[in-house]
Amino acid sequence: MAYVLRRLGFYLLAAWASLTLNFIIPRLAPGDPASAMFARFEGRVQPEAMVALRAAFGFTEAPWYVQYATYLKHLLRGDLGLSYAYYPARVSEVIGTGLLWTLGLAGCAVIISFTVGSLLGVLAAWNRGGWLDATVTPALAFLGAFPYFWLAMLALYLFGFGLGWFPLRHAYSHDLEPALSFTFAADVARHAFLPAASIVVATLGGWMLSMRNTMVATLGTDTLRLAHAKGLPPRQVMLRYAARNALLPNVTGFGMALGFVLSGSLLTEIVFSYPGTGYLLILAVRNQDYPLMQGLFLTITFAVLAANFAVDLLCLWLDPRTRAHA
What InterPro entries has UniProt attached to this entry (predicted)? Predict the structure, then answer.
């Protein structure tokens, strides 16, 4: 319990530092969102409205500690401010439009890639020199050497533009309205197949190779020799003793990958014009939408911290040595 509380305290401190930097950095930069909006609309915003706009975006003449207290109060309510590129929409609403698509696309792709890659790595290490180890491992490692956005463009050209099997862009057909129906779900799955498959193919080899190498090192330990000497079934030795110990490094990497899911697969979402948070981040940078960029960075940071804390708890459960030193 003391270990969990220490880790929780560390992550809470990191979260406070990230949101404090998120408050300070925009105020150190020249200008503010209200001035950028005034320049963007070329005088169509009255100068008298500048004070109200600055207050709406959280930039006032009040002392910094008053602004900071107001900033924290709004964050505790889940208020990330206004997006001036989508004005008057709130940042939380804009992020929410892309969050579901990113979780569905990148989240499912990372989980599938991790699960299948780790299982293939276990089987390849257990049957070293077999056909799986000799052919699939180098083939997936070769595919993983290509940038995932290049694989995405290749898949889009071959299966979307060339063969016409899959749609070229967006998350669902423009003639459909979002609804809880099989037709809409099937259309969403059809649009997500190519971008998700490109992410899985690009990352599958890394998970498999990492798991295989760790598994090979684990197979030579005294624990495995003792398990074999006891006459335990090979499948139980492979899964309960070898795979469980070899899984820890992959679980740590999975936590990082899962945390960064909210940032979206930027270039893949751009290639397919997929309306996720990564695509939103690109649009925010292009439109100089500072509040939206701040909200996205804060959301991604909190997601990474939460995922790492979850991984710490999972490692505490998987590895008895962690519990012994906690």
Answer: MetI-like, MetI-like_sf
64-103 pLDDT, tens per residue?
A: 777 778 778 877 777 777 777 676 777 888 888 777 888 8
How many other CB atoms are found less than 10 A from the CB of residue 193? 16
Burial of 281 (0-12, 13-18, 19+ CB in 10 A): buried
Listed range (25-39, 110-124, 178-192) with the worst mean pLDDT:
25-39
Query: In DSSP terms, which residues pair with 90 in a beta bridge?
Result: 82
Residue type, position 309, single letter: F
Q: Output the CATH code of domain 101-325.
A: 1.10.3720.10
Q: How far is CA 288 from the centre of its chain?
A: 23
Domain boundaries, the chain: 2-76, 101-325
**For residues 140-145, average pLDDT:** 80
The continuous run of DSSP H or E covering 72 comes out as helix 64-76
Is there a contact between 199 and 106 (Cβ–Cβ < 8 Å)? yes
- The Cβ of residue 47 has, within 10 Å, a number of other Cβ atoms equal to 8
Query: Does residue 40 surpass a pLDDT of 60?
Result: no
**Residue 43 Ramachandran class (φ > 0 left, ψ -120 to 50 alpha, else beta):** left
Stretch 297-319: mean pLDDT: 76
- The H-or-E segment that residue 259 falls in is helix 244-259
Residue 90: φ, ψ to 5°: -80, 150
Most confident stretch, 2-16, 21-35, 187-201, 247-261: 187-201
Ramachandran quadrant class, 145 (left: phi over 0; alpha: psi -120 to 50; beta: rest): alpha
| Span 177-191, average pLDDT | 80
Whether pTM > 0.90 for this model: the answer is: no
CB 220 within 8 Å of CB 273: no
Tokens encoding 44: 């169509």
Cβ of 284: how many Cβ atoms within 10 Å? 25
